[in-house]
Design brief:
The chain has about 850 residues and is mainly alpha-helical. Among the domains are: about 475-565, no CATH class; about 720-835, TATA-Binding Protein (2-Layer Sandwich). It has 43 helices and 5 strands. It has a 5-stranded antiparallel β-sheet, sandwiched between helices. A hairpin with a 6-residue loop joins strand 3 (about 785-790) and strand 4. The longest helix has 20 residues, at about 295-310. It is globular and about 110 Å long.
Length: about 850
């Protein structure tokens, strides 16, 4: 009986058609290895191309390593390049094969063709095998003395590679002094530039352990070296010029004559076609003249034209980078660029990121003389089809108004925005009108007349709705329908998703009550009741605070919630002057483009949530399924504990206190219930304060003492942990993937602990005090996620913990993995004990 036919699969043209393809390549290469026939190099090229293509798509062709080395015995430069590429790729993963290449690479390093010598030396240094460093010293020494500049250029970079493979070998071979000699004497500018780059890196790394290296590093910015490099700067490539200019920026001249000499020498670099060279030159000019105020201002005038030229020429990416540097200069000296504001007008074909930065520039350069033209231009952008740019343009108009430039005209423009039938325009304008009223209360009459005609149902964005509600509460005495608009918003409390809006609504209703009590009494009761029943902790706490404040003393409540206000003179800047100065010091770097100092995006402490997410890989909160997150809606019973009456608290704690009849109002829509509750509030005397046993009363500063019954002393856990435990993220990730889950539990947090968990860092310090360390953390209220680790004190046994906390439910879901699973329960007790003690 014949065997069943196998399914036919057509081979991919980019992959071997069968297992014997690599074997066929090997036999064909072996046949060609010793052949001297005419045209043999062409045949080798085709086979080499096939080998390289297989290697590129991930097919293992290491079996033909020996044949490739044998076929490299040719003078064809193309074959040499492909062979070196193949050898460099497999030498990294298979050091044993690298030994086969040493002889032919060393032989090629002595070839007559300087191109082959350079390629062979580069490939030899690229093997990066620690066991082969002894074979690099000889060829590198010869390469540094080679007559051809290309070979010397490659040899200099080879020295740097050798240093990273084996620093002692590089130092013992006296390569750094040789590089210094070449830097100061070699006629080829590229060799000089490579020497400078290599020496900076080597001596910077060596300076921490060697005083001599530290002195040599300082010698690089000495006057003889700086002047030597500056005199040859026109010979260098653009990259080398930037390298030299970066070094010159660190040089401290002895007097003003030196400063002017250097600036005169570099004057023509400001007209260079390459933007990087221009920015590097500008950095030198700015840093040299920091202590010379008048000259520094003249430098701004001198560099203005080159920068504006770079903005208008080149790609959008280059324009954005140059604009970012212009922006930081404009922030330091806006008056110098005020007359050039038209250069920052947006073009229709520019990307959004360039337009947004130009809007910031227009805001920065605005002054009394150009405000009208700039605001007119910005108002045109408000009708832009690009909605984000339209929003930014309206914000820019508001920022200019807050700078006290032509306020009358700008307020009229903003009020016109409110009358436009575009939701996003109205939303942005409302936010700006609120800020303007805080700074210019005298405009309240004109603004409120327009704001009062806006329907709250047409405003959906949280910030805009919050601004509208703020104005309804702040100017309720001037807005006839304010209590009734607030009443309709309160009736739709359950449908409002934004906690920010609900917080503003509570405060606005309180303000309106103090100004128009008869019309707002019913609304206030409903708002307080809804706030107390709210699941968001901040809303609940504010409603409880207002309720107790009103019950304590109505006049005191008015002084707290609605005191006389002074106009805001200056709005807080988002960046401190220290940060701006730090960015200026890092001119011509990514810090300017990111608009933050380098440590904020290089140091792990400033990377934000899950700063180790790049190392931990799949340990990301976004990667978790929705089932693992504690739902806020499922915790109503626990949250109700915050609403327990005094008598209920007494029954739970079993303590004897002088109990009052006070209890927090429940959410009841009936008018009778609301009015009776408010009757209690309004009838409270000014000097009386009802007693209460809730511990939160004292936290509110009402002078009401409440001593809760002492909790029973907990038995200290028996497991002892190492307080100085160390575990790197890579090991944590590997163990987390390999170890099974020992325990999966759910713990409860105390109300005090929930209140303290405003940021992840609060819990990290607490757990560290219990010898439980955090390796990654992130999230924001109400969901936080942590990865902890701990080690036993007497042995190196690790415990790994994933902890997901939902502050709305006061629950923590904990997964524990352990090297020794028999101790998992003991560690769980330690972890639960530490978590239960977390509080403010």
């Amino acid at each position: 009986m014949a065997p069943p036919a196998q399914a036919h699969r057509s081979p991919s043209p980019s992959q071997p058609s069968g297992k014997g393809e690599v074997s066929d390549l090997k036999s064909q290469l072996r046949q060609l290895a010793g052949s001297r026939a005419p045209g043999i190099d062409d045949s080798k090229r085709e086979l080499f191309k096939k080998v390289i293509s297989y290697m590129t798509i991930g097919i293992d062709v290491s079996a033909v390593f020996g044949e490739m080395v044998m076929c490299s015995a040719t003078s064809d430069i193309v074959l040499k390049k492909m062979c070196y590429l193949y050898v460099g790729n497999y030498a990294k993963v298979n050091p044993d094969l690298a030994l086969l290449t040493i002889n032919f690479l060393q032989r090629d390093c002595k070839d007559e063709d300087p191109m082959i010598r350079g390629l062979a030396l580069r490939s030899l240094c690229s093997l990066r095998v620690a066991n082969l460093v002894e074979y690099l010293v000889g060829p590198l020494g010869l390469g540094l003395k080679d007559n051809n500049s290309y070979v010397r250029t490659v040899a200099v970079i080879g020295v740097l590679k050798l240093y990273h493979i084996s620093a002692p070998t590089c130092i013992d071979a006296d390569f750094p002094p040789t590089l210094k000699h070449l830097m100061l004497n070699d006629p080829d500018p590229q060799v000089v530039a490579n020497c400078l780059s290599a020496l900076q890196e080597i001596w910077s790394l060596e300076a921490s352990t060697s005083e001599e290296a530290s002195r040599e590093r300082e010698a690089l910015i000495s006057k003889p070296v700086i002047y030597y490099l500056l005199n040859r700067i026109k010979e260098f490539s653009e990259w080398a010029q930037c390298l030299v200019l970066e070094l010159v920026a660190k040089y401290v001249p002895l007097d003003s004559n030196e400063i002017f000499d250097i600036m005169n020498l570099l004057e023509d670099r400001l007209q260079h076609a390459n933007g990087a060279v221009v920015l590097s030159t500008i950095k030198v000019f700015l840093h040299l003249t920091l202590s010379m105020t008048d000259v520094h201002q003249q430098v701004y005038e001198r560099i203005k034209a080159p920068l504006l030229t770079l903005v208008s020429s080149g790609s959008p990416e280059q324009s954005y980078a140059v604009l970012s540097h212009l922006h930081i200069l404009v922030m330091r000296a806006p008056f110098i660029f005020a007359s050039d504001y038209k250069h920052f007008y947006c073009q229709y074909n520019e990307p959004s990121y360039v337009k947004k930065l130009k809007l910031e520039m227009l805001t920065a350069v605005a002054n009394e003389s150009n405000t009208y033209e700039i605001v007119t231009e910005l108002c045109e952008y408000a009708a832009n089809v690009d909605i984000p740019i339209a929003r930014e343009s309206i914000r820019a108009v508001g920022k200019i108004a807050l700078q006290q430039y032509d306020v009358n005209a700008i307020v009229d423009r903003l009020l016109q925005f409110l009358e436009m039938e575009k939701d996003y325009v109205t939303a942005e304008a409302l936010v700006l009108v609120k800020d303007l009223l805080r700074k210019y209360p005298q405009w309240s009459h004109d603004c409120i007349a327009v704001v009062g005609s806006i329907s709250s149902q047409n405003v959906q964005e949280p910030k805009a709705k919050a601004a509208l509600i703020w104005m309804l509460g702040e100017y309720s005495q001037d807005m006839q329908d304010a209590p009734y608009i607030l009443e309709s918003l309160t009736e739709n409390w359950e449908e409002e998703p934004s906690a920010e809006v609900r917080l503003h609504l509570l405060t606005a209703v309180m303000k309106c009550f103090f100004k128009r009590p008869p019309e707002t009494q019913k609304v206030l009761g409903a708002a307080l009741a809804a706030g107390l029943a709210d699941f968001h902790q901040d809303v609940h706490d504010r409603a409880l605070f207002y309720h107790r404040l009103l019950q304590y003393n109505v006049s005191v409540a008015e002084r707290v919630v609605n005191p006389p206000k002074q106009a805001v003179s200056v709005f807080a800047d988002t960046q401190s002057s220290e940060i701006k100065d730090r960015i200026f010091d890092e001119f011509n770097s990514l810090s300017v483009v990111y608009q933050k100092p380098s440590y904020m995006f290089t140091d792990k402490d400033y990377r934000g949530p899950f700063e180790f997410s790049d190392e931990l890989g799949n340990l990301s909160i976004a990667a978790e399924s929705a089932d693992n997150v504690v739902p806020a809606q499922g915790v109503e019973a626990n949250d109700k504990d915050l609403l327990l009456s005094t008598s209920e608290k007494e029954e739970i704690r079993g303590a004897t206190f002088n109990v009052s009849g006070y209890s927090a109002p429940l959410y009841d829509s009936s008018a009778a219930s609301v009015q009776s509750e408010l009757a209690i509030i309004s009838s409270t005397s000014a000097g009386s304060a009802p007693s209460s046993s809730l511990a939160i009363d004292d936290l509110l500063g009402l002078g009401l003492s409440a001593a809760p019954a002492p909790e029973p002393a907990s038995v200290p856990p028996s497991l002892k942990l190492n307080s100085k435990a160390i575990l790197d993220p890579g090991t944590f990730q590997q163990k987390w993937r390999q170890l099974p889950i020992s325990l999966s539990q759910e713990f409860s947090l105390s109300p005090e602990g929930v209140a303290a968990l405003t940021t992840p860092q609060a819990l990290l310090w607490h757990m560290q005090g219990h010898s439980i360390h955090c390796i990654a953390s992130g999230g924001h209220s109400p969901n936080f996620k942590f990865f902890f680790f701990a080690q036993k004190a007497e042995e190196s046994s690790n415990f790994l913990v994933e902890c997901i906390i939902n502050t709305s439910s006061a629950k923590a879901q904990v997964k524990i993995k352990a090297d020794d699973q028999s101790t998992s329960q003991a560690f769980s007790d330690v972890f639960q004990s530490a978590l239960s003690k977390f509080s403010v």
